[in-house]
Amino acid sequence: MIFQFNGNGSMGKFRLWMVALSLLSLLCGFQTERAYYSLDSMTPNQYLGKWLWCGPFPLASIEMMYQPAPTDSVKGDSVDFLESIGGELQAIPAEGTLLKLPELNIKRSWFFYKISDEVGELDSLFHSSDNYFAYAFCRIISPAEKNVRFSVGCTGAIKIIQNGNVIYERSSRPTMDLFWEEIRVQLVTSDNNFLIRLKKIDAELKFSFKFLNTEMNQGSIRTNSLQLINDSRYENRSVGKCTF
């Protein structure tokens, strides 16, 4: 696209117009709302690919904070990388939000990326082959309280936070193939903010999040509980109820 200016202040007016448009975008939340879904528009078995991402946070850097270094099973698990924006339970990031971790000499910005396939290969996204932590964020808007089912796949450790509550957590399970589990979630009316914390241990970090359906029986789901639903399509899975 080519813009022509007549030399009578048009360049200055154009710049002012662009600044005004950028401010309007921020005020209207356009930058944040790229990573959102409306429940009314979601279809069964739909993969959710629109996320805000932040990372990587290398485990090698975290090791330098500890003397002696912790074991692999707990290394870095207690570190909240989002403290500067309210912490993991309160953070509601926007595209471009900057994280500063001076103790680790790390700066990271949240960025939008849409997974084009069913599974996101995060090592390529973060340009890292080392072990690391990373975050993903999206919002689901529901017209009313709804019980829904999701299928979550990950090759490493994962923690899912919905509106400040940890609704699912699994420790490191390094595997080359996705480890799938189905979860029941109670959506609240209006905004449901989902923050995903991921941890890579050795195997390539892959992640997938699929909406299965809205349940017909809309009974209450106990707070901070997770129902794993048996599904013969997935092998080598634990099935039962996990509480946190």
Descriptive notes:
It is globular and about 50 Å long. With about 240 residues, the protein is mostly beta strands. The chain has a single domain, classed as Jelly Rolls (Sandwich), CATH 2.60.120. Strands 1, 3, 6, 8, 10, 11 and 13 form a seven-stranded mixed β-sheet that branches. It is about 10% helix and about 40% strand. The chain has helices at about 10-30, 60-65, 120-125; strands spanning about 35-40, 45, 50-60, 100, 105-110, 110-115, 120, 130-140, 145-155, 155-160, 165-170, 180-185, 190-200, 205-215, 225, 240-244. The longest helix has 19 residues, at about 10-30. The chain is built from three helices and 16 strands.
Query: CATH architecture, please?
Result: Sandwich
Class derived from helix and strand content: mainly beta
Number of strands: 16
CATH topology: Jelly Rolls
The gist of it:
The chain is mainly beta. It has helices at residues 10-28, 59-63, 122-126, and strands at residues 36-38, 46-47, 50-58, 98-101, 106-109, 111-114, 120-121, 132-142, 146-154, 157-162, 165-170, 179-187, 190-199, 206-214, 225-227, 241-243. The chain is built from 3 helices and 16 strands.
List keywords for this structure.
244 residues; mainly beta; Jelly Rolls; disordered N terminus; disordered C terminus
How are the SSEs placed, and which strands pair?
Elements: H1 10-28, E1 36-38, E2 46-47, E3 50-58, H2 59-63, E4 98-101, E5 106-109, E6 111-114, E7 120-121, H3 122-126, E8 132-142, E9 146-154, E10 157-162, E11 165-170, E12 179-187, E13 190-199, E14 206-214, E15 225-227, E16 241-243
